[in-house]
Amino acid sequence: MQLSNLYFVAVAAVAASIAGCKGASSEDLVGTWHSAMGGAESTYHFRKDKTFTLESSFAGCNAVATGEYELDGQKLFMGAADSKVTGPEPMAGQMRKDALRPIQTQIKFESPTLITMMPDSPSPIKLTRTSPTP
Questions:
Q1: What pTM did the predictor assign?
Q2: Mean pLDDT of 24-29
Q3: Could you tell me which of 11, 16, 113, 126 has the fewest CB atoms within 10 Å of its CB?
C-alpha cells in the first residue's frame, strides 16, 4: 500500500470512528489519537477550535499537516491548509501531492478511547486516544 493511501486512510479512520456515535460532537474528538497500520504510524491532534495537526511516518518519510476539521453526524471532514513532507523520493513526492487533499470519511465512536474510521479503501482504521488534550 502506498504511503499516501495510508496517510489518508489514517485520517479517515479517526473521523469515521468519532462521528459514528449518536450525540458525538467535536468535543468527543478533541485530544491526541494514534494509529499504526501497514508500517505507517500516525498521530492526530484535534483541538477545541476545530483545528488539527496530523503527524505521519512511513518508509523513511515524515509528514506534518495542519488544518481545520468539522464533524457532522457520522462524517468527518478534514482540510489541510499547510503541510511539510521530508524523506526519500518518490514516496515523499507522492505524500506532498496527497497531503493537502481534503478528506471526508465515515467514523464510528467505539468508546471514549477508541474510534474507527471507515474510508472507501483499503480497510477500517482503528485509532486509540493517547491523551484527552491535543
A1: 0.80
A2: 83
A3: 113
